[in-house]
From TrEMBL:
Organism annotation: Nocardioides yefusunii
Stated name of the protein: IclR family transcriptional regulator
Highest taxon of source: Bacteria
Entry keyword annotation includes DNA-binding: yes
InterPro entries cross-referenced by the UniProt entry: GAF-like_dom_sf, HTH_MetabolicPath_Reg, Tscrpt_reg_IclR_C, Tscrpt_reg_IclR_N, WH-like_DNA-bd_sf, WH_DNA-bd_sf
Domain IclR-ED, chain residue ranges per copy: 74-257
């Protein structure tokens, strides 16, 4: 993370440099990295130590950050309210999806995920783990690019045409020809029409994935998908998993609708 990180399809607010740095400092605190020193924050965000102290002081003033012992700092319990607000805004999606996800995991014993789009990113709503170890980069609450992986491309394909085009134009120059070919209007229209897609090693090396749109009325509100090592997903098994995932998406959509 750097102080200049922004999502590709999110307009950059002018004259908000200090506010942006402050928010990026808060976002440094994650489940994987719950404590930071001032020097570490300064290095991570390319700030002077003096500036890092100033921003940290503001976060402490409003009660979001406090000391964690020694020279380290942590997020306070006040942030729990933000997490609960995010959960409440999701409505019944997670509540309806989790039992279906758990059944899917039982049927083919691979990790199952539900994600939704927020602006120019995709966020994991919930995740049910396989009983067999598999390393993925898509954790609960984590923001992921809209153009990499089956879950993301299902949601990208469902965006309004103009918004989708602007996003693709921003990122396509950074991609290999093979990856760029997945983002052409024809390719994305095909995904939108059939409501599902699959991916091979687009996000994590050695991982195959598939996903299907969860559609309420004419609107795609989320996507459900799975990810598994390529070596244990032959063609016949992939076809069966895709069928089950598509059925699960329809089941969730019916419950929500």
């Amino acid at each position: 993370m750097t102080q200049d990180d922004t999502r590709p399809d999110t307009p950059r607010v002018q004259g908000a440099s200090s506010s942006r740095k402050l928010l990026h400092m808060l976002l440094c605190f994650t489940e994987e990295r719950p404590t930071w020193t001032v020097a570490e924050l300064a290095g991570e965000l390319h700030l002077s130590v003096t500036s890092a102290y100033r921003y940290l002081g503001l976060l402490r003033e409003v009660g979001l950050i406090d000391g964690a012992g020694g020279k380290s700092y942590r997020v306070t319990d006040l942030a729990v309210g933000l997490a609960r607000a995010a959960e409440a805004a999701q409505g019944p999606l997670a509540e309806v999806s989790v039992p279906v996800m758990e059944r899917l995991r039982t049927e083919f014993d691979e990790t199952v995920l539900v994600a939704r789009r927020g602006g120019g990113a995709v966020y994991c709503v919930d995740r049910v783990e396989s009983r067999r170890p598999v390393r993925l980069q898509f954790d609960r609450g984590q923001a992921m690019d809209l153009h990499a992986g089956s879950l993301s491309r299902v949601l990208l394909s469902s965006m309004p045409a103009a918004e989708r085009r602007r996003y693709v134009e921003r990122v396509v120059g950074q991609l290999s020809p093979d990856r760029a070919a997945l983002l052409t209007p024809t390719a994305l229209n095909e995904v939108a029409e059939r409501g599902w897609t699959e991916s091979f090693e687009e996000v994590d090396e050695g991982i195959w994935g598939c996903a299907a749109a969860i559609r309420v009325g004419e609107t795609v509100i989320a996507a459900i998908g799975t990810a598994a090592p390529v070596y244990r997903t032959g063609e016949t098994r992939r076809a069966e998993i895709i069928r089950l995932v598509r059925d699960a998406a329809d089941e969730i959509a019916a419950a929500l609708g």
